[in-house]
Amino acid sequence: MLLRTDASGQFTMTEVAIGVRQITAFDEEHNVQTQANARLTHPGEEVNLILVLPSTGTITGRVFYADGTTPAPNIKVIV
């Protein structure tokens, strides 16, 4: 089930089956996510979750060839 939060960050999932469900919030703009488990044990139960996304920062750097002085252009950098 895919939902979007509203302007206040709120979401509501209805008709969720009894049991443990892993809920993931993913911020596409900053490429960060967080997860929490929701445990529904009986019909009609409501569970309130607070999901907190991690902070983000910036990583910068330069890539050089083996001689340590020649810049390496167009190299893929993966995090």
Helix proportion of residues, in percent?
Answer: under 10%
Shape, per Cα inertia axes:
elongated
- Backbone structural class: mainly beta
Biggest sheet statistics:
2 strands, antiparallel
Strand content: 15-25%
What can you see in these coordinates?
- This protein has strands spanning 19-27, 32-40.
- It is mainly beta and 79 residues long.
- The protein starts with 18 loop residues before the first strand and ends in a 39-residue tail after the last strand.
- Strands 1-2 form a two-stranded antiparallel sheet.
- The protein is built from no helices and 2 strands.
- The protein is 0% helix and 23% strand.
- β1 (19-27) and β2 (32-40) form a beta hairpin.
- The chain is elongated.
Question: How are the SSEs placed, and which strands pair?
Answer:
Layout: E1 19-27, E2 32-40
Antiparallel strand pairs: 1-2
Would you summarize the structure shown here?
By secondary structure, the chain is mainly beta. It has strands at about 20-25, 30-40.
What tags apply to this protein structure?
about 80 residues, two-stranded antiparallel sheet
